Amino acid sequence: MTYSMTGFAALEQLIENATLVLELRAVNSRYLDVHFKLDESLRNFEPVIRELLSATLSRGKVECKIHLMQRTQSVHAPQLDEQLMQQLATMQAKAQSYFPRSRPLSIADILCWPGVVQGSELNQEALQESVRKLVQQGLYDLNASRAREGEKLKAIILDRIAQIEALVEKVKPLLPALNKEYQAKLEHKLNETLKTIDHERIAQELVLFAQRIDVDEELGRLTAHVSEVKRILNSSAPAGKRLDFLMQEFNREANTLGSKSVSVQTTQVSMDLKVLIEQMREQVQNLE
Questions:
Q1: Given a cut of 80, is residue 202 above it in pLDDT?
Q2: How many CB atoms lie within 10 A of CB 26?
Q3: pTM of the entire structure?
Q4: Strand ranges, E, within the chain
Q5: Mean pLDDT across the chain, nearest whole number?
Q6: Domain ranges for the chain
Q7: 7-74+123-146, which class in CATH?
Q8: Tens-place pLDDT, residues 70-118
Q9: Which residue, among 75, 72, 33, has the nearest Cα to 54 in the 3D structure?
Q10: 100: which DSSP letter?
Q11: Backbone angles phi, psi at 235, to 5 degrees
């Protein structure tokens, strides 16, 4: 299965007196880069969540958001931490002795202060297990999204690979014709300048010309690279880094083919190859 590095998943899970809300977003990145946006009450679960993400994903910039929403229908009414409020009052009085013109804390400031309003406490072990299950389901949905996107990218790459195969087959029969064309031009040139045909000279020139335009090795490597791309796309292992390396090899062979070109046809084939390789490279950047 070919996976894209781009995906999204959003889930909610009801737990005792609260609701867990999860969002997972993934975009392309050279390495696995995980960012968390967790409620304060969930911060201590970050190592567990990171372990789950690292076990499933190998590349991509991943953003994990988890929000814990307390439900108002709680059996126990919220309580105020009077000791903490007393500490706030003491700190405010002391701070205002140094800054008498500062604004005092409002009721809203006090109620929003972490720990002032106490709801019913959730069992931490049960909460961790709920978070684990929610993240696992989120990763399943995220991977399903990435797989759908990956199949689309795979189809695009295979289409470009088929066009490259067609271009390679187009070049192969051109080489004998180019040799014959060059031989005719050489004979005509020698006949015009020397008024005679030196067959030994022609044979030497043809050998040098054949060596100069010999691209069998490049065409063979292009064919091998095409087979390797197909094999990688059909394997279950992450494909992005290996395909990225192959794109460099494809480009090297296309450049060599262009540098050895002695005709408009082979030059055009080299240019078409480069366009297809660049199109593939852009898609490969999004594969895991």
A1: no
A2: 29
A3: 0.68
A4: 7-15, 18-27, 32-38, 60-70, 79-80, 117-118
A5: 83
A6: 7-74+123-146, 80-117, 149-284
A7: alpha beta
A8: 765 545 566 788 888 888 899 988 888 888 888 888 888 887 777 776 6
A9: 33
A10: T
A11: -90, 170
